[in-house]
Amino acid sequence: MKIATIGTGFIVDTFLSAVEKIDDVQCVAMYSRKRETAKPLAEKYHIHTIYTDLKELLKDPAIEFIYVASPNSLHYEHTRLALEHDKHVICEKPFTSTVEEMEKLMALAKEKQLMLFEAITTIHMPNYQLIREHLDKLGPIKLIQCNYSQYSSRYNALLAGETPNVFNPKFSGGALVDINIYNLHFVMNLFGTPDSIRYTANKHPNGIDTSGVLVLKYPDFIAECVGAKDTQSLNFAIIQGEKGYIHVKNGAHPCESIILHTEDTEVTLNNQTTTNRLYYELLAFNEMFKNRDFDRCYELLDYSHSVIRMLVEARKDAGIVFEADHKK
């Protein structure tokens, strides 16, 4: 798997570190509008080619995959261009700003028989699979609680009157799509699409959500998902059943360890060997690519579509409007 990256943020650093851990995965090029922005990462990971012209990168025949880690509002454009140039794509979460964008990308990928993945770490974690394997020990599920709160380094800038991308409706930012999406995936990959979803948010005057609470209603239980970029908290995920509960240490994002509580017993489970959360998703994507497993790829793509539908419904429920909502 020969990959090129779009973006130079901290997530790209983590991604390139994961690339180094997998023998048959290699980053062969980077794209940045300014060469000097990409140079530190290129030197750190011994990447010899930096493009400042995106179309030139997409014409490079040595590149098989594009990893899209640009601002949220550019995910659709960059992914579309990559697919149009016959490149497979790994796109950072959230996949797109709107359902319509997502559906166009799905259709294009399937038409051209290209792989298209959402880089959502949670569902590929070994410890997340442990949760799935032990759910039946809890009996009928009644409640799920998730909290992922992380005071953003950019929040002080917002308070000072600036508008960082992550808090900008123009760039499809906000706590829901940036941080609470992990909780949403945590619930939906285990239990499917809810009957209804509501989102109550703390909003900045510019209309973006800095924190909020998702409520997902299923036929027999309720899930509550808290995501905040304006406060800190104890992060956790808890699945409560009539016969016990599962506590996910430090929440849905890292899935650091699983504590299974049933009757008078408590068992701690952990199948993860690295703290680099992107390693496990990249391992899964590479395996599908090697095996040309398009069925599994498109199954995941259809699942991501269901999450985007719920994400957009929740965002609109809170009255959060992106610039992308006005585009056709």
Description of the molecule:
With 328 residues, this protein is α/β, with parallel strands linked by helices. It has 2 domains: 2-117 and 280-292, NAD(P)-binding Rossmann-like Domain (Rossmann fold, 3-Layer(aba) Sandwich), CATH 3.40.50; 123-277 and 309-326, Dihydrodipicolinate Reductase, domain 2 (2-Layer Sandwich). It has helices spanning 10-20, 35-44, 54-59, 75-84, 99-111, 126-134, 155-159, 175-191, 278-290, 294-317, and strands spanning 2-6, 26-31, 50-51, 65-68, 88-92, 116-119, 141-149, 196-203, 209-217, 222-228, 236-241, 244-249, 258-262, 265-269. The strands form 2 sheets. An 8-stranded mixed sheet has the order 8-9-10-7-11-12-13-14, with helices on one face. A 6-stranded parallel sheet has the order 3-2-1-4-5-6, sandwiched between helices. Helix 1 (10-20) links the parallel strand 1 and strand 2 (26-31). Helix 1 (10-20) packs across helix 9 (278-290), helix 5 packs antiparallel against helix 10 (294-317) and helix 8 packs across helix 10 (294-317). It comes from Neobacillus thermocopriae.
Keywords for this entry:
single chain, 328 residues, alpha/beta, Rossmann fold, Dihydrodipicolinate Reductase, domain 2, 2 domains, eight-stranded mixed β-sheet, six-stranded parallel β-sheet, 10 helices, 14 strands, 36% helix
